[in-house]
Amino acid sequence: MSDDGVLHFNPWMDFNDGPPSENPFGCDPDPGQISVFLDTVFSWCEGLIPLRGFVDKGQGRDGKPHNIWIAADATAPEKFATFAAWANREAAAVYVIPGTVAEQGQARAADVLQMQAIVVDLDAGDIPAKLDHVTRHLGAPTLVIESGGRTPEGAAKLHVWWKLTEPIEGDDLATLCRLRGDIAVKVGGDTHFRSAHQPIRVPGTVYHKHGHQRLVQIREHREVDVDLSDFAERVAEMPPLPGVGFASDVSTAPSKPAVEAVLTTAVREGDVDDWSRFQGASAAIGHYVRLVHEGRLEPAEGWEAICGYNAAMLRPAWPLDRLQAESERLWALHVKKNGPPLLRLPRADTSAGPLPSISLGALLDDTSPMPEDIIAPRVLTPGGLLVLGGAPKVGKSDFLISWLVHMAAGVPFLGFTPPRPLRVFYLQAEIQYHYLRERMQQIALPSTVIAAARDTFIATPKLQILLDAEGVARAAGAIGSAFPDAPPDVIVIDPIRNLFDGGPEGGGENDNTAMMFFLKDRVEPLREAVNPDAGIILAHHTRKASKSQVKEDPFLALSGASALRGFYTSGLLMHRPEEDSSMRRLEIELRNGPALPGKLIDKVNGEWVEQNPLNERLVRAEVGAKHDAERARKHDVILAILLDEAAEGRLYTSTQLGEAFENQRGLGSQFTIRERLGVLATKGFVKFRRDLAELGFPATRSHFGYLVVEDMRFGRDPTIDPETGEVLDEGQVVLPTHFKCPHSGRAREVENPAVWVYPEEADE
C-alpha cells in the first residue's frame, strides 16, 4: 500500500493469502463471466484499467477502498479473477471505470483515453419496460447484467451494454458519454454515466449490500456490436419512455454547427472551440458526400474538397486513413438512406482525339471479307465476350474443358468449329492441381484430339487471387509466359465468383454496378494487355429460377444478368430440363450473328454428344416421365410374375394371365395387362411355346401359345447331370418355339431356341 492509499497490483501477496475455501459467504466469483465482460468492454482498448474494491454498505463492516490498475491485455481476466476472489473474502464490491488510462493513479474523466462500450444503468421503476424500450429502439444489446440490487417491487436492477465496433478516443469520447446520458434521461436511468469516470460493478463478482450475497451475473450475452455514429442516430431518434423519460437536454449536447460556418472556421483538438474536430469533419464530409451523390461534383472532386478542408481547418489535421474511413462510412449511410447516386461522369479527355464515326454510305460500300470467327458460327468473334452459365454441378466445367481441348486441337465440337487449332489459356480458380489432372485424364477424348492440343491448351491450378489490379497484372504475365511466341486466341476465366473484384464499393457478382466494374475495369484490361483480338469466355453461375422462368428467358437466370447481357457478345446457358434425366439443354444467344437453336446434349460413355431434339418431350414432360416410369414398372412386374409362376408349375397365355392377375400388383385391368404383353412381345422380352405336352399342358387355341421369358424354368425339381450326378439347377428349362415379328405382328418360328435374341429396335 502506497502513502496515497493506492494499492498496487504487484506483488500479489495481499490477495493470495487465503485460499478460496476460507470464503465465509455462500457465493463465489465466476471467472468465466468476468472474461466475457472484459471482452465486451476492454478487448480492443490499450492502456490500464482502473479497478476499485470497497466494502458494500449495510454490513456493519469498515474497510478502506482498494484501487488497482491492470493492463488491458491477455493477462487481465486472470488478474481480475484474483482480485475478485480477494474482494469476496473481504465482503468488498468490485467496480471498474469502463475505459483505459495511461498511468497508475489516474482515474479522472480527463484521464480516460479509450472506451469501447456504451452502458445504461436501469436501477428504478419498471425495469422490464425500460429494457424493452431501449432494445426496440437501439437494437439488441451485447450484455444485459443483473447488478445484484433489487427495486422495491422486487425487480432485478440491470446494466445494459452495447459493444462498439472499435475503441473510441479523443473527441469521440465526449460523444460517447453524451449518449450514455441521453439514454438515461429518455428511459429514467442513472444519469451519472454522463461522466467518463463513473465506475460500475463487474459481472462475475459478488454483491454484498445489506448482508445479501448475490452474484453480479450476465443475464444475456450476444456477439453483436454497433457503430458509434449509427448508434448516435438511433439514440437521437429514440422517443422518451412515456410517463418516465424526457427528451435529451439539448443544452448539454453539442449543437450541430452550420455547414457554412464549418467550411470557413478552423477547429482545434481538445474541445476548446464551439464544436469539436469530429463534429466539424463529419459536417464537412457530409456536405461533400451530398454534392457527389446529387451529381453536382465528380467523386474525385469531392474527395479533393474533403482533403482540402482537413488540411485547412482541422488543427491538427486528421490522418488520411481516418479521413477516408469516415468518408466511406458516411457515403454508405447516405446511399442507404437516399438510394443510388446520380454520379457525374468525369470530364471528357479530348487529348486522344475525336471519337470515330462512320457514314451510312461507307458502311454500305465496304465489301471487304468479314473477320474470321474464333469459334464458328459467330459463337466467339475477335474481341468478343462469351458467358457460359449454369447451376452448380450441372457439368459446365466438364463441358467447358472438353470444348476447349477440342478447340485447341482444331477439331469441331457439338457443331462449334474453330478455323484452326486455337491457343487457349484456361484461368481457373476452382479445381486444385491433383484433381485437375485427374479430371483431364478421366475425360473421354479421342487420342488425336489429345495429341493435337498438348501444347496449345494451358490451364492453371486453383488460383488463390482476386482479379483486381494486381491480379490482372499477374494473370497477364502468366499468359505471356505460357505463350511467348504468339498471344492466345481464347482466354477463359472459370468461375467469375472465385476471382471477382467488385471495385471500391465491394459489391458482389449479383450487383449490376459491381459486375460492370469487373467487366470494364478488370476483364477488358486483361484482354488489352494480352491480345486485343482475343476472345474471352467467362464461366458463371445462375440464380435460382423456376423451370418456367428458365424456359421463357433462360439468360435472366445469370447472376448480374442485366449488366452481363448488355455487355457480352454471346451467351451459352446449360441446364437440366428434367432433374431425373442426364440430358442437358444448351441455350444459345448471339449478339453478332443470327439466332442459333438450342442443343440437347448428354454424356455417352464419358463423351459429350448431341442428341436429336425430336427425342425431347416438349409437352407435359413431367407427366410423361411419370408414365414412362410406370410402364417400366409394369414391364418388370409382368416378367417377374411369369418367372415365379413357372417355378410354381403354372404357365399362361396372354388372355389367361390378364384374367388371373387383373387389378393385382398395380397392373390394372386384364386389357391393360394384355396390351403391355403385346408391347413386351414386340420388343422381344416375351416369346411363346405352342407345344407343352411334355409338361402336362394341353394344346392351346391361342395364335401364339404359352408365354415364355428368358431363363424361365418350370417347377422346382432338381436337374441332375446324368454323368456326374451333380445338381445343376432347379426346374426344367422352358424354351420358346415362336416369337412375335416386330414388323408384321405375326407369329414366326424361333431359329435357335437356346439363344434368346432381341430385335435391334428393342429399347433395352
Number of strands: 27
Mean pLDDT: 83
Nearest-angstrom radius of gyration? 41 Å
Oligomer description: single chain
Secondary structure class reads: alpha+beta
Tell me what portion of residues adopts beta-strand conformation. 15-25%
Q: Mind summarizing the main beta sheet? A: 9 strands, mixed
**Coarse shape:** flat
Briefly characterize the structure.
With 764 residues, this protein is an alpha+beta fold.
Q: How does this model look, in words?
A:
- With 764 residues, the protein is of the alpha+beta class.
- The protein is 34% helix and 19% strand.
- It contains 22 helices and 27 strands.
- The strands form 8 sheets. A 9-stranded mixed β-sheet has the order 15-14-16-17-13-18-19-20-21, with helices on both faces. A 4-stranded antiparallel β-sheet has the order 2-1-3-7, covered by helices on one side. A 4-stranded antiparallel β-sheet has the order 4-6-5-10.
- The longest helix has 27 residues.
- The protein is flat and about 120 Å long.
- Pfam families: AAA_25.
- This is AAA domain-containing protein.
- InterPro entries: P-loop_NTPase.
